[in-house]
UniProtKB/TrEMBL annotation:
The keyword Transit peptide does not apply. Its main location: membrane. This is Uncharacterized protein. Pfam families: PTR2. It comes from Penstemon davidsonii. Signal peptide: none annotated. The keyword Electron transport does not apply. The chain crosses the membrane at residues 42-61, 81-103, 124-147, 175-194, 206-231, 251-270. It is found in: Membrane. Keywords: Membrane, Transmembrane, Transmembrane helix. It comes from the Eukaryota. InterPro entries: MFS_trans_sf, POT_fam. It is a multi-pass membrane protein.
Length: 280
């Protein structure tokens, strides 16, 4: 496929008979320079890698949406204090602060010895690790939700929209894993787009990598809308009703974990066939 696309793009730099007769080579819509064609090829090769970041961003969006909904149905009290469910995103920040020095001081030297690369991990490897951690993050959230729903059933709280007596701090692992995934994927993505983009388009490509965040939020909303529409047919409560004790938020988390795993498999394939830009 890549070879076919590249051959098609090569034709943009070929002088046709009509241009040879008229001697007019100034129309950029009919004739491109070899440099322009090669730069476009680089962007085409980068596109699949960029697209896989959208699913990860959809997972990342759960930190401010479904994770908060889940936390509101758990015990948020610590002594006489009540912890807002949304405040647990602090542990994502703590995770980032923790993993940055650990990555630089411990993981990179170990990886450097194993791979022989100055950076330890390549940008593609770093993003792949982040995608794998995102699968673990959603799996952890699903396991906690299964536990919460089982306890709600045992205590007879299924029909009551009240928090289940499980400490909200059991959500910390999923926030911590999400922070680790963020370090590997987002930073690896920025490095990848900066290093691999055409020299004249580095700023644009770096900004393009950030576009995955907004598209990921749209994808998250789309998935939620589809899930709600499909699971509420026939008057059913659905996976995510107003009373989460009657729902199956765990199914939603497993769905995202499955999509993340499929996305990771596609990413691994795209990363293997990706041809790095020659050093300029």
């Amino acid at each position: 496929m890549d070879v076919f696309v590249c051959r098609c793009l090569d034709k943009a730099a070929v002088i046709v008979e009509e241009e040879s007769k008229t001697g007019n080579y100034s129309n950029p819509w009919r004739l491109c320079t070899v440099t322009q064609v090669e730069e476009l090829k680089i962007l085409v090769r980068m596109f699949p890698i960029w697209a896989t970041g959208i699913v990860f961003s959809a997972v990342y969006a759960q930190m401010s949406t479904m994770f908060v909904e889940q936390g509101m149905m758990m015990d948020t009290s610590v002594g006489s204090f009540t912890i807002p469910a949304a405040s647990l995103s602090t542990f994502d920040v703590i995770s980032v602060i923790f993993w940055v020095p650990v990555y630089d001081k411990f993981l990179v030297p170990i990886a450097r010895k194993l791979t022989g690369k100055e950076r330890g991990f390549s940008e593609l490897q770093r993003m792949g690790i982040g995608l794998f951690i995102s699968v673990l993050c959603m799996s952890a959230a699903a396991v906690i939700e299964i536990w919460r729903l089982n306890l709600a059933n045992e205590l007879g709280l299924v029909d009551e929209a009240v928090p289940v007596p499980i400490s909200i701090f059991w959500q910390v692992p999923q926030y911590f894993l999400l922070g680790a995934a963020e370090i590997f994927t987002f930073i690896g993505q920025l490095e990848f787009f900066y290093d691999q983009s055409p020299d004249a388009m580095r700023s644009l490509c770096s900004a393009l990598s950030l576009l995955t965040t907004s598209l990921g939020n749209y994808l998250s909303s789309f998935i939620l809308t589809v899930v709600t529409s499909l699971t509420t047919r026939g008057g059913k409560d659905g996976w995510i009703p107003d009373n989460l004790n009657k729902g199956h938020l765990d199914y939603f988390f497993w769905l995202l974990a499955g999509l993340s795993f499929l996305n990771m498999v596609i990413y691994i394939y795209c990363a293997k066939i990706y041809k790095s830009k020659k050093a300029s």
